[in-house]
Amino acid sequence: ASVNVMAHFHCELRKLSWSGIPRQVRPITWKLLSGYLPANAERRESTLHRKRQEYFGFIEQYYDSRNDEHHQDTYRQIHIDIPRMSPESLVLQPKVTEIFERILFIWAIRHPASGYVQGINDLVTPFFVVYVFEYIEEEVENFNVSSLQEEVLQNIEADSFWCMSKLLDGIQDNYTFAQPGIQRKVKALEKLVSRIDETVHRHMQQYEVEYLQFAFRWMNNLLMRELPLRCTIRLWDTCQAEPEGFSHFHLYVCAAFLVRWRKEILEEKDFQVRCFFVSCCAVPEPQCVLSLRETPPPSLTCRVEGSVRLH
């Protein structure tokens, strides 16, 4: 009976979260949706305490090895990639840089099948920002993270590590050798677009544009380079509410994102310029693919509705 109750709890939580999660309850909701926290409220505090201790046990066990010959290339690449992340005002804060370096290095050491791959670094940011929101009211981009108490920062770091790990558990083949997961998803996206918008698909064929040219990054970074951070966080509400949100549902989001620009794509004669636009432009917040209202709307009123119809 208790198993059925827990299953019902998760089912209802997903339904409520799909159209957006209010900021004040987003931290605990993400922890529940990811499977980091149990549905049983009586077990949550003990689970948090145990998992946070476990993470810092990994730090003690592994982090000093970052300068060893076997691991120094991994650490060096992480150290190079973090300043390239956004928002710069956040990730360039020394305290945040240190936290991200530890999270990414420990994850890489514990997942030797893939190790660290560029793109994984971006996936820390939404979790970190959402869990900082648990303790502040202002926008995180303008906040001095080092002003938080050390214990609070440690909790945010450990929670971000575990939730990022849960996400990556479902898409790790995106980052193993030759990135087969991404290769499959790009092929699936091409097949999907050919079915739902044959005109766009034929236009791309006519100009010899490979889906891999733009969709690789969409899969590798989960559209984080294309969307403002607030949009990404809102999108992740929905992706985490889907049972296979980052592995399967994300494909449909990418298709909806592509169809969103169909008019511009079809009007473009120099398609390489258009391909650059699709791949590299960031969607301005007023035109964001998702609603940004902090109070969830009755339903999504933008392109992800299309992804549900496709799904």
TrEMBL record:
Molecular function (Gene Ontology), one example: 14-3-3 protein binding
Database matches in Pfam families: RabGAP-TBC
Superkingdom field: Eukaryota
Keyword Phosphoprotein attributed: yes
SUPFAM superfamilies with a match to the protein in the record: Ypt/Rab-GAP domain of gyp1p
Domain Rab-GAP TBC: 20-243
Keywords: GTPase activation, Phosphoprotein
Role played: May act as a GTPase-activating protein for Rab family protein(s).
Protein name: TBC1 domain family member 22B-like
Source species: Sinocyclocheilus grahami (Dianchi golden-line fish)
